[in-house]
Amino acid sequence: MPRCARAHTRGIYSWAGDPPAGVPLTVVELNVLGGSASPAVVDEGTRDVSLVVLTELDTSTAAALDALGWDERFPHRVGRADPGGWSRPPTSPAPDEPKKIR
Length: 102
Known about the structure:
With 102 residues, the protein is α+β, with helices and mostly antiparallel strands. It has helices at 39-45, 59-67, 70-73; strands spanning 5-6, 13-15, 27-31, 51-55, 76-78, 84-87, 91-93.
């Protein structure tokens, strides 16, 4: 079985404007293991989601997902390298987190 692991990230993406009212939002975060995950498995596992965040994303995996039609399915993209995000609704990079003061 191809390897693909879940990962936790935070503060990477935010909605560009208000989130769509009354529309369910499904977010998937996957660690594609630096190219070890099968793009076909990633594609199949994200068919019905709103937003996908991929960590350990390499250029060959990103190109394979583009070849599988991700630019049409997820027209809004943030980041071309680790991490990368694809979304059906518009997104934008989240503002930097405030620095901690000692």
